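User: My instructor asked us to take a sequence, write out its structure as tokens, and then describe one feature of it. I'm not sure where to start. Here is the sequence I was given:
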Amino acid sequence: MNIGLAGSTDDNARLAAVLAGMGEIAIALSGGIDSVTLATFAHRQRSGVTMFHAVSPAVPGDATARVERLAEQHGWILRVVDAGEFDDADYMANPVNRCFFCKTNLYGSIARHTGAQMLSGANLDDLGEYRPGLDAAGHHGVRHPYLEAKISKAMVRAMARRLGLGDLSDLPAAPCLSSRVETGIAINAQVLRAIHSVERRLARDFPLGTIRCRVRASGIVLELDAGTRAALDPGRVETIEAEVETIFAGLVAVPTLTLAPYRNGSAFLQGMP
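Assistant: Let's start with the prediction itself. The structure tokens for your sequence are:
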């Protein structure tokens, strides 16, 4: 069946063909635009779809709230699980391949709840970056429908608009909060809450901006896209600096703040062992 897929295109057809050949499926649903679009498409396209959302200190509460709201709105079968990565010493040490341990725990947790084919929202753009999580997916037999259908991030956003997801189609990328912590600095739940607090405060004023609060050995770095940075007047910057130092006091060795241009994955130091 093909229910409610307005404005069908070649990428719609390719993705539908990939999904059609599967039995029951379990979608790892982070709350970002990639997995949300896949969940929406799959639910409208066919039956036998369950969404799995993992909660942990690394997952922003607003992502969980978004997932729960969408599940109620669209009638999804949703299961919220604890992936358990915060009980994994390898993950907590924040090595260069931390994402491998994160995804290993996630897919292992989903597999304990279902025998369905697991799916991720990885798209073609992800292949241009170091993604140890894809190695973990391979170990668990996870399939990537966007990759199989040759769908990029821009195509995902266009699909989201056709599916009627509105402003969510422009949702900024939001990797897990642990990705803000420089490689080699141990993951700490309190620090992640502080990171999220800083980012949320700015996101209220710049909901479509790209905002990353990074924790580095040298201190706190707030990375902003060019438009957001240009819109901050000196008074607002002083207020943010004071707030950040208060929020991180006692949590990190150097709580002072530096502003910098946004760079994708800049807390990730691949050269480290």
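For the description part of your assignment, you could build on this observation: Residues 1-7 have pLDDT under 50 and may be disordered. Try explaining in your own words what that tells you about the chain.
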